[in-house]
């Protein structure tokens, strides 16, 4: 580079340093999730930021990350029916209590997941008093008795849980995944009771949780037709019958290019128009389409380009969430970091036991990924802050960076003068 170009380069750097160095320095200060700005602090005026957890993640580095970045948690598994009541009348509270206590100790919201689901529910729920499968019954009278018995068991299950945790839980996933692509899911709940199990679940949760309890119906692929309309029709029908549903949980198990942002927006607004709250309950952004094949064999095999594409996806997503912040009260990731995700099981299942996904903003070593920077972004000073002299302590108003920029100009200028003097002397 000749001296004239050096001077131009120095001038450019001097001009852009105050505006560009803040982001660069902030992104290079530390890659650790514990040493970067808090996600929940970034969105404190918009919605809660949550993570799904297992009890073992409440300790050590993962526990500290939870405290730093999140103000809401969800039990990934230990509050599901088979975990809380594996045998009729025998409730196991130990693991669930750990999550409740952690939330209380750290002033976090707690989402309860879930009171009713077609998976991870013990078999005894669906056996009659003679231990016969209820779904196999053909006698109309016995079918009615089975229906009443199942609803009674459901009421007892919900009553016992809600009475124990009603002062601890901020949002209840009352019914999970009642809809499939064809309409109402043909689960054992539905085959035995019709839609009565949904009505009973919400009414029981309201009765024992009180008017302050926030009750949600939760599902996946809520952005996509025809499932979106099937869920809307169910919820609207229940509301018309007086069933106390307060909100819809959109799981948001999504991919790099599916569903579209427009589909996501339309879905949230569709249910908001019913007067319902929205919570994003199980967010993760898979690197793969469906089915997840081929998958990267290991984390080290994932190219930077995949993480950059994921970062763009998160950027679009959180921009939408902020746009709709009056409709959204909580955004929960279905995990903390890439070291623990249910998507790994799916990748392995479809790739002969070898596959790794990476759906979150923190990597397997709890360092930030490009997606983190996209959702955290950096506040630009407002006009009032500029006029009032209340600028944040960034490179824009930091004396050190001003000094560096001026120094670059002086050095480049001195070199240019020296060169000119040398030329004049030789002539």
From TrEMBL:
Gene Ontology MF annotations? endo-1,4-beta-xylanase activity
Query: Which keywords belong to this entry?
Result: Carbohydrate metabolism, Cell wall, Glycosidase, Hydrolase, Membrane, Peptidoglycan-anchor, Polysaccharide degradation, Secreted, Signal, Transmembrane, Transmembrane helix, Xylan degradation
EC supergroup of this enzyme: hydrolase
Query: Where does this polypeptide localize?
Result: Secreted, Cell wall
Q: In which pathway does it act?
A: Glycan degradation; xylan degradation
Organism domain of life: Bacteria
Please state what the protein is called.
Beta-xylanase
Source organism per UniProt = Geomicrobium halophilum
